[in-house]
Amino acid sequence: MTSISTDDIFNLDHPKNFANGKWNRLVLLSSNDPYHLLVERHFQTGWVHPHKSKPQVQAVFKILSTSESLKKYERYRAKVAVHPKVAHKKVPGNERLLFHGTARCCLLAEDSSRVRLCNLPECYLCCVIRSSFEVQRCGTRNKFRRFGTGIYTSECSSKADDYSCNKSDDANFRVMLANRVVVGKARKQQENAEHLTEPPKGYHSVIGKPGLELNYPETVVYDNDAIRPAFLIVYGTPEASEKKDPKRLRNFITTLFNTPIAS
Ligand SMILES: [Zn+2]
Question: Which GO terms describe its molecular function (predicted)?
């Protein structure tokens, strides 16, 4: 990925972002914004499941975090970046953009105006956007944790899609998070290691390699400050009746996100 070095772009307290309103944690990116293009390309190349048809990206929102939260992340990244096994990496801390799918109970990001987080405790999506990830909360929906108690992401958008879940019947689209993850020096592992609560000594993360029991790669970090949500991707096609009329559907989506959709 291209290095994202200016954390200002994610900073809720930065004057540039403050214009969006103190309570708005999402900023819709125009379809020709460089970050939109980067995230969409990453999403499309990461869609690798042969039996799942590639969905269309409808919108990309930038996620704003508080200065306090970003400072902790930057501190962690700086610490990892000077590690002898990581210092030579082109991107500081071996930071990567990785996907995570989770449950959404509200209609956040269903159109350009829905940018306020809900307060439903079971809406994991809004919880993560508000306060980032917590190791202890991760995987509570899925008891089996192949590489122990950590925060799971994947370079495969089609794998993260398996975990993306709409709890509201009114949702038209699917959403997933693209996150900045400080991978550092990763331990590549094929065998399960369910006992892990921290990375193996000398490593910062575990990358599950496809092979024995895993079909697609996943990356696990064990520190809350090794990851921050960066973008929210809205994708898929509405199940509504508009589906039968492609032109109407295109107009419908264009209206939702105030942005021209490529035909
Ligand atoms: Zn919500």
Answer: NAD+ poly-ADP-ribosyltransferase activity
Residue 10 phi, psi dihedral angles, 5° rounding: -100, 5
Q: Give distance in angstroms: CA of 36 to centre of ligand 1.
A: 22
Q: How many domains does the chain have?
A: 1
> How far is 215 from 212, CA to CA, in rounded Å?
8
User: Is there a domain that residue 23 lies in?
Assistant: yes
How far apart are the CA of 53 and the centre of ligand 1, in A? 27
- Three-state DSSP state, 80: helix
* CATH code, domain with 242: 3.90.228.10
Distance 67 CA to ligand 1 centre (A): 22
23 Cβ contact partners less than 8 Å away, ≥ 6 residues apart: 116
Task: Give bridge partners of residue 59 from the DSSP assignment.
Answer: 234
Give tens-digit pLDDT for 83-95: 999 999 999 999 9
2, part of any domain: no
pTM of the predicted protein model: 0.91
